[in-house]
Amino acid sequence: MIDFSEVTRAKSKARIAVTGPSGSGKTLSSLYLAYGITGDWSKVALIDTEHERGRFYANRTDLNTGKFLYASMTPPYTPDKYIEYVKSAADIVGSDGAIVVDSFSHCWDNEGGVLDIKSQIAQQRGKNDYTAWDEAGKIQNNLVNTILSVDCHTIITMRAKMAYAMEVNDRGKTVPVKIGLAPVQRENTEYEFDMCFQLDRTHNASLSKDTTFLDSWTGIITPELGKQLGEWLSKGVELPRCSDCGDVIMAYGKRTVKQIIDGTIKNYGRQLCMQCVAKLIKQKKQEKQREGA
C-alpha cells in the first residue's frame, strides 16, 4: 500500500526558463534574476553559447551588474557537453548559487545538438526519421532532467522563432515589427520548468507558466523580482499582499516593496500594490471633477 502523508511546503530551487527574440534582453534579465535570488554576484555562473556576448554584461555600472563566474561553450553543442558544464557550474556555485545557461537552444538545433544526433541515428541501418526519435528523445529527456536536478538555482534562456507583423507606429505609419513565437527547442520544453518568462522587444516580460506567486504579473525583470522569488523559494516566507486586490505587492520602478508598503500605509492606512494606488488616485480625480461640475 502506498503511504500518503499530509503535505507541507518545502524549500526549493528556482527552475526558470526565459524566452524571447533577439534583443529582448534574455541574458541581462536572467542575470538579474540570478543575482536577486542569490544576493551575491560571485554565486552566479553564466554558461555562454552566444559567442562570448555574455562578457558584455560583466561589472557594468550602467546596468548595475557585478563580477559573475563565466564559461564560454564552443561547438559542438552536444547534450553531454551541456551536462558537463552544468554539473561543473553547480559544484562551483554551491546549493545557494545560480546557473544561467545562455542559451539552451543551441543543444537543440545547432552543431552537435539533438536534431543533429537524430539525423545521424536515422542514417543507421534499419533506422529512419521516425524511429530515430525514440533514441534522440531519450537523450533530450536525460539532458532536461539533469539540468532540473542539479542542487542549485537554474535559469535557462531560449531563442524564439522569429516572425514579423505589420503594426501602426506612433507616427501613423504601418511598419514591420519583429515578434517572437515558440522557443527554439523541443515542443513544450518550457513546461518542464516551474516558471517561463516571455520577453518582447521592449524588454517587457509576461508569464506563460508560473507555479509561484506571480499570478498574472507583467513588467520589467529586475534584481528585486529575483530577491522576492529567492525568499519565497528558499525561506518559505509568505510575501506581502495588497489589502484591496489580494495580489502580491511587487517592486515598481525604483521603489522597493518595503518603500511601497511604508508609503501606502502612511497615505492610505493599509498596504497596497501600485495598481490599486493608481485606481485610488484616479477615483479621487473623478470625484473632484464631479464636485467642481
Summarize the structure.
This protein has 293 residues and is α/β, with parallel strands linked by helices. The chain is built from eight helices and nine strands. Helices cover 36% and strands 21% of the residues.
Which CATH C-level class of the largest domain is it?
Alpha Beta
Q: Give the name of the CATH architecture of the largest domain.
A: 3-Layer(aba) Sandwich
Binned strand content = 15-25%
Helix and strand composition category: alpha/beta
Explain what this protein looks like in three dimensions.
It is a single chain. With 293 residues, this protein is of the alpha/beta class. It has 2 domains: 15-234, P-loop containing nucleotide triphosphate hydrolases (Rossmann fold), CATH 3.40.50; 240-293, no CATH class. It has helices at residues 26-38, 79-93, 106-109, 114-122, 129-149, 223-234, 257-268, 274-292; strands spanning 15-20, 44-48, 69-72, 98-102, 153-168, 174-183, 195-199, 204-210, 218-220. Strands 1, 2, 3, 4, 5, 6, 7, 8 and 9 form a 9-stranded mixed sheet that branches. A hairpin with a 4-residue loop joins strand 7 and strand 8. The longest helix has 21 residues, at 129-149.
